[in-house]
Amino acid sequence: MLARPTPVDGEVAAVTFKSHLDELWASDLAMDNGWGRFTLDPIHAVITMWAVRPDGSRDHYFVRLGAEYYDQWPPTVCFVEPQQWQPVTNASRWWPQIACPEWLGLHLNHPSISRQLVCFSFTAEYYMVDHNPIEAAVWKPGVHTLAGTLTRLQEALKPPHYQKPSI
């Protein structure tokens, strides 16, 4: 079993987090995916992401990233409702219906952490519950960045996985 994430120095995390977000937005990746971004505070940002239904129509979602453990661990990740930017807690327009591939789990309220869980190896929450990933899937500080987290999540928000909002 892997170690559990522990908080890192907030000032260092904030600088690294902002730097990695800025690098991502300087690349073509954010623009090519149509992602939007705004900062909530030095260690939290909301990313607007587009999801594509099987019929080609699109829905947008808001994903909050957090740097509480970053970049020794991946960012925290949750789908949030607009305005208050709090994690979605019930099936709603803001919670996606996804036929999860084997590498992803989505839980509105996971019993191990008593909150929403977007679960794959590039989210900090993945390491807060018991997993035994293959070495190639484990987050590597200094190698992986939040760009990998968002890229993998975007993959789940496209066909054949993404279906529609849960309500």
Q: Please, could you describe this protein's structure?
A:
A hairpin with a 4-residue loop joins strand 6 and strand 7 (115-119). The chain is α+β, with helices and mostly antiparallel strands and 167 residues long. The mean pLDDT is 95. The strands form three sheets. A four-stranded antiparallel sheet has the order 1-2-3-4. Strands 5-8 form a two-stranded antiparallel ribbon. A two-stranded antiparallel ribbon has the order 6-7. The chain is globular and about 45 Å long. It is 20% helix and 28% strand. The protein has a single domain (10-165), classed as Ubiquitin Conjugating Enzyme (Roll). The longest helix is centred in the N-terminal third of the chain and has 17 residues, at 10-26. It has helices spanning 10-26, 28-33, 146-156; strands at residues 36-41, 44-52, 58-66, 76-80, 96-98, 105-110, 115-119, 162-165.
Q: Write down the CATH topology.
A: Ubiquitin Conjugating Enzyme
Spatially, the strands of the biggest sheet line up as 1-2-3-4
- Alpha plus pi helix count: 3
Given this structure, which CATH class is correct? Alpha Beta
How much of the sequence lies in strands comes to: 25-35%
**Helix/strand/pairing category:** alpha+beta
What's the N-to-C terminus distance?
A: 36 Å
Give the helix level as a range of percent.
Answer: 10-25%
- Poorly predicted sequence stretches spanning 5 or more consecutive residues: none
Main sheet summary: 4 strands, antiparallel
The overall strand count is: 8
Q: What is the total number of structural domains?
A: 1
Assigned CATH superfamily: Ubiquitin Conjugating Enzyme
Assembly classification: single chain
Provide the residue-averaged pLDDT: 95
N-to-C SSE string, H for helix and E for strand: HHEEEEEEEHE
Radius of gyration: 15 Å
- Examine the secondary-structure arrangement and name the CATH architecture: Roll
- The outline comes out as globular
